[in-house]
Design goal:
Luciferase-like monooxygenase; single chain; alpha/beta; oxidoreductase activity, acting on paired donors, with incorporation or reduction of molecular oxygen
C-alpha cells in the first residue's frame, strides 16, 4: 500500500460527436467505478462555456454523485469562490452534507474557470470588474459560517444558525497552483491541493505552505494533496496514444480555439501535421503501464511531500478512462468496495 492516499478528479470530458448529457452519464459511471475500486475522494471541476468539459456546476453534480456512491468522499475541485457569495456556498454545501453526511468536500479556488468574458457573464454586478483581492475576506467569511465564528455584532451573524443541519459541515480545502493559494491555505489552517497538472513547479509552494501552516480547529497539521495528470494502459504505447486527444485539445486551447475532446484518430492526424504541439508546453504528464505510473506518481509525491495524490485525465474513450483507474487501483492494491445499488 502507498504512503499516500489516492483520489480522482473528473473534469467531465465531452468527446466529439457526444453531448454534455453523455458526459454527465460518464461522470456518474466513473464515480461509481472509483468508489468500487477503493479510491478515497471523487472531485468534480468547475469550467465554464467549454465545448470539451461539461462540469460547469460542481454543486449540481455532487448530490447525484453522492447518491450514486456509498463510501467515497465527494467534492468540488473546485468551487471558484470569486463568482459566488460566501453565504450561498455555505448553504449549498451544508445542504449537500445533509444529503451525504460525513462525505462532502468543499474545494475552493480563485481562478475564474474561463476567460474575461465568462468572468463578466458570471457576475451579477457588471458595473465593475471582479475584485480578486477580496478572496481572503470571502474565504474568512465562508469559514466563519462553518465555525459559527462570526462576531455577534456582525450583520450576518444570525444567518449561521439557519444553515441546513443534520449532516455536519463539509470539509473545506484550498486549491491552487501559485504561492498565493499556498499562503492562504497555511494562514487559514486548511488542507491544500496543488494542481501539478497545471504547474509542475509547485514543490517550493507546498514546502512554504508546510512551513507557515497555522493549526486550526479543523486541522492540526499541514496536509498536502497533489493533482497530477495520469493515464495508465496495458502498454506504454497504448497509454501514449490515449493521451493524444488531450494534447491536441490543450494545444488548440492555448491558441484560443475551443473544440470537444477529439478522437484518438483525429488527434493523431492533427499532431502529425503539428508536431511542435507535443513539445511546446511545460505541463507534466504521466503515461505508461500501471507499474510505470506507480513509479512516476511516487516521484511526484516525494517531490511535494504529498499526503494524497489526486489523479486526473481527459480522454475521448470512456472505457479507457475506466480501465486506467482500474489498472492503477490494482497496481496500488486498493481495497475494493461493494458497488452501490
Amino acid at each position: 500500500m502507498p504512503h499516500y492516499t489516492l483520489s480522482v478528479l473528473d473534469q467531465s470530458p465531452i468527446s466529439e460527436g457526444r453531448s454534455a448529457a453523455d458526459a454527465i452519464v460518464d461522470t456518474l459511471d466513473l464515480a461509481r467505478h472509483a468508489d468500487a475500486l477503493g479510491y478515497h475522494r471523487y472531485w468534480v471541476a468547475e469550467h465554464h462555456a467549454s465545448p470539451a468539459l461539461a462540469g460547469a456546476a460542481p454543486e449540481a453534480l455532487i448530490g447525484p454523485i453522492a447518491q450514486a456512491t456509498t463510501q467515497i468522499r465527494v467534492g468540488s475541485g473546485g468551487i471558484m469562490l470569486p463568482h459566488y457569495s460566501p453565504f450561498k456556498v455555505a448553504e449549498t454545501f451544508c445542504l449537500l452534507s445533509a444529503l451525504a453526511p460525513g462525505r462532502i468536500d468543499l474545494g475552493l479556488g480563485r481562478a475564474p474557470g474561463g476567460d474575461g468574458r465568462i468572468m463578466l457573464a458570471l457576475q451579477r454586478d457588471r458595473s465593475r470588474r471582479m475584485a480578486h483581492d477580496d478572496f481572503p475576506n470571502n474565504l474568512a467569511e465562508l469559514l466563519a459560517y462553518f465555525d459559527q465564528a462570526l462576531p455577534e455584532d456582525h450583520a450576518f451573524a444570525p444567518l449561521m444558525d439557519t444553515l441546513p443541519s443534520g449532516g455536519g459541515m463539509p470539509e473545506p480545502w484550498l486549491l491552487g497552483s501559485s504561492m498565493d493559494s499556498a499562503l492562504w491555505a497555511a494562514e487559514a489552517g486548511l488542507p491544500y491541493c496543488f494542481a501539478d497538472f497545471i504547474n509542475p513547479d509547485g514543490a517550493s509552494m507546498t514546502a512554504e505552505y508546510r512551513a507557515r501552516f497555522k493549526p486550526s480547529s479543523r486541522l492540526t497539521q499541514p496536509h498536502v494533496m497533489v493533482a497530477s495528470w495520469v493515464i495508465a494502459a496495458d502498454t506504454a504505447e497504448r497509454a501514449e496514444r490515449l493521451g493524444k486527444p488531450a494534447a491536441m485539445l490543450g494545444a488548440l486551447l492555448r491558441r484560443n480555439v475551443l473544440i470537444p475532446v477529439p478522437s484518438i484518430e483525429t488527434a493523431e492526424d492533427w499532431l502529425a501535421d503539428n508536431p511542435s504541439a507535443l513539445s511546446s508546453h511545460r505541463r507534466r504528464v504521466i503515461h505508461g503501464t500501471a507499474t510505470d505510473v506507480h513509479a512516476q506518481v511516487d516521484t511526484v509525491a516525494a517531490e511535494y511531500g504529498a499526503d494524497e495524490m489526486m489523479l486526473v485525465n481527459i480522454m475521448s474513450d470512456h472505457t479507457a478512462r475506466r480501465d486506467s483507474y482500474r489498472l492503477v487501483a490494482q497496481e496500488y492494491g486498493l481495497a475494493p468496495r461493494a458497488k452501490a445499488a
